[in-house]
């Protein structure tokens, strides 16, 4: 399964969701890969504490002799495999985007779940990967959009991105992020998106300072602060996605949350993985 994560505006939380949802799937027992498809401003690797990876997606794009397995990093804290981008301008200028689709196809073959963190707006750079995907998640930041202009923003952004995904036959869902609004307002927005726009809302994630704090530590919030509001909300979004994608019924009780916490603790204490 390949899911593309996109957003109409920068800063909505696309990279954060890519990092945390891939962590959720990994902790739920799926072999998971996350790819930094934001080719010009790659930041995904920072969320996993990977800085300046020598071999990376850009190396693969610019040098056909690079081996895929050398560019994939196993993150022991989350169990996620990460295909990072390069932050060096030279690497970005010399890449050959034409190879992206083949690289992503080859990489995703070995995983149950692959997330691709795409560039902001209409993701022209990664559009070739849309044919490899089945799902598209649009991350919408409510916090920076006054609620009364929400409908205008939806017309401008969500409608277009949804149409784009559907043109490629993708199943499209929305994640609302950085929520600070009261429940009735959020309920209104969800109803508008689901009934008028016709797109399911798969997640509603609270604004939570634990998210940037975790990013600074290089550990996704679902592992770094598993009891935070954002971690809880992201797990719920993950449950919805898992039901949607794998058709499994999930009953998340106290025991499941406890097991998740144990599992992430175990991974941190006894890292089994090594760089692939
Ligand atoms: N739910 C949240 N609560 C608080 N801060 C968040 C939340 N989600 C993301 N952020 C912060 O917002 C900033 C932008 O997020 P990022 O994932 O990089 O956005 P994008 O990839 O869409 O540009 C980051 O500093 C991140 O830590
Ligand atoms: Mg980003």
UniProtKB/TrEMBL annotation:
Q: Name one GO molecular function term.
A: ATP binding
- Cellular component per GO? cytoplasmic side of plasma membrane; cytosol
For this protein, the record's InterPro entries field holds:
CobQ/CobB/MinD/ParA_Nub-bd_dom (IPR002586), P-loop_NTPase (IPR027417), ParA/MinD_ATPase (IPR050625)
Specify the superkingdom. Answer: Archaea
Query: Boundaries of each CobQ/CobB/MinD/ParA nucleotide binding domain copy?
Result: 4-221
Q: Which GO terms describe its biological process?
A: negative regulation of cell division
Protein name in UniProt: Septum site-determining protein MinD
